[in-house]
Design the sequence.
């Protein structure tokens, strides 16, 4: 019960804050104004969200873990690349940590704020590091082997390009069908470019 109450409070704070940010801009809204709108103290807001930016990226942990989790959950006989491509394409019809889809208001909010763009870059770097760790685990690579880091950099780069493209299309109010079609086409092209190097990398054994 207590954990559920905390989750509800956290979700409410993030929701209230994001609405204010979209309406007035991230830099123009203070923690005190968020607290007042949510009917809590400033201390409560700061306890749940030590960084103001994380009120916007309240799903940050799910985003951070999304690529690594996909690799860890790949099916027997499936490589890391194929798992990430399959999972990305499977989520395109919805807002999901893997695909960068969001509301137009949210896309414009992040685009217009240097602080939010910087925080999102930090999350991207952490997500890439988590993916590298998952690839190291999946391949039992030695500590000095650079292959997991190099592979994670390539795979994470594809997702960054896909996210950036999604946000740009969303800011332009691209119709749903056209949005999905453009992103699916780009995903096929981008992942295909990595096939020569990564088609079989980190393939889960059939008997695993």
Sequence:
């Amino acid at each position: 019960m207590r954990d559920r109450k905390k989750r509800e409070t956290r979700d409410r704070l993030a929701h209230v804050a994001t609405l204010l940010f979209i309406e007035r801009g991230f830099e123009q809204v203070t923690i005190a104004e968020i607290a007042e709108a949510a009917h809590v103290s400033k201390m409560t807001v700061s306890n749940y969200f030590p960084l103001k930016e994380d009120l916007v990226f309240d799903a940050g942990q799910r985003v951070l873990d999304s690529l690594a989790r996909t690799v860890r959950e790949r099916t027997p006989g499936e490589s890391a690349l194929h798992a990430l491509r399959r999972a990305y394409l499977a989520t395109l019809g919805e807002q999901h940590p893997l695909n960068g889809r969001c509301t137009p208001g949210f896309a414009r909010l992040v685009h217009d704020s240097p602080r939010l763009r910087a925080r999102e870059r930090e999350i991207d770097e952490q997500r890439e590091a988590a993916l590298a760790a998952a690839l190291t685990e999946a391949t039992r690579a030695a500590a000095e082997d650079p292959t997991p880091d190099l592979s994670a950099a390539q795979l994470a780069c594809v997702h960054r390009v896909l996210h950036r493209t999604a946000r740009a299309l969303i800011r332009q109010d691209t119709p749903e069908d056209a949005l999905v079609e453009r992103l699916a086409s780009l995903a096929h092209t981008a992942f295909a470019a990595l096939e020569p190097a990564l088609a079989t990398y980190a393939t889960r054994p059939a008997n695993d």
